[in-house]
Design goal:
Blueprint (H helix, E strand, L loop, with lengths): L9 H42 L7 E5 L6 H8 L12 H8 L5 E9 L3 E8 L4 E5 L2 E5 L5 E5 L7 E4 L5 H13 L2 H4 L2 E5 L6 E5 L4 E5 L4 H11 L6 E3 L7 E2 L1
Parallel strand pairs: 1-3, 4-7, 7-8, 10-11
Antiparallel strand pairs: 2-3, 4-5, 5-6, 8-9, 9-10, 11-12
Helix pairs in contact: 2-3
Length: 244
């Protein structure tokens, strides 16, 4: 048998073969090694984020307030300052802030590395209801959300003993439908039920509105009727308006 070590070129080829074999083995195990390293880093990062104070809550940002103060929102939010940011339950914070009457909607988000941001959208007043010596602001859905002692000249005053949300919402719908010409004559509105809305005008005049249905059409008809000298305008049936 021939001595392989003496075969010309065979001895010189062995180091190259060993290098190729090592490279081939590395190519096979490299994905496993890299995956292991990546997994290890992910575990370390998760531990840092979830269980250490490195990314804990140190700041609460409040945005969107006009009627409310940042202090009022922050007090209701009860953001757990010092807790790891990843563990903060955002929906619970939003749910607490949403219980404030002035808040129509709220969103809460994490702001890395250490802040919780609470953005509120406050309700918009459509009418103001007389309540004794105060005025209650009512939004478009009939929710009473703010009370003050001064009358707001931008809002129509409504006089009703009923605080039913549907009725207040219907009154807000009527107020929103008023044309500029009609609005300039309005001193208030009154109603005992959703079907008995009356718009009160200057000079002791009034518009029998009926329900809030077809309010846009009723507003146009009532505006046209102002050209007729009368005390009472009835647009409860806008296709057949009357005046007297």
């Amino acid at each position: 048998m021939a001595d392989r070590s003496r075969v010309p070129g065979l001895a010189d080829a062995r180091p190259g073969l060993r290098r190729r074999r090592r490279r081939a083995r590395w190519r096979r195990v490299r994905p496993v090694v890299l995956a292991g390293v990546g997994l290890g880093l992910a575990v370390v990062l998760a531990v840092v984020v979830w269980f250490t104070p490195v990314f804990s809550v140190r700041e609460v940002r409040i945005e969107g307030t006009r009627l409310l103060t940042s202090t009022q929102v922050e007090s209701r939010a009860r953001v757990p300052v010092g807790q790891p940011l990843a563990q903060v339950r955002l929906q619970q914070i939003s749910d607490r802030v949403a219980t404030l009457p002035e808040v129509e909607s709220v969103s809460t988000t994490r702001r890395w590395p250490s802040a919780v941001q609470v953005v509120v959208t406050e309700r918009t007043a459509r009418v103001q209801r007389i309540n004794g010596s105060t005025y209650q602001w009512v939004d478009g859905s009939g929710v009473v959300f703010h009370t003050q002692t001064q009358r707001d000249p931008r809002l129509v005053v409504v006089n009703t003993t009923d605080t039913d949300r549907r009725l207040l919402g219907d009154l807000a719908t009527v107020a929103q439908s008023l044309t500029p010409r009609l609005r300039s004559e309005v001193t208030g509105m009154k109603a005992q039920s959703p079907d008995t809305i009356t718009v009160v005008l200057r000079g002791g005049r009034s518009v029998v509105w009926g329900s809030a249905e077809e309010s846009a059409t009723k507003a146009q008809v009532a505006t046209a009727l102002l050209q007729v000298k009368a005390t009472v305008y009835d647009v409860s049936s806008p296709a057949n308006p009357t005046s007297r």
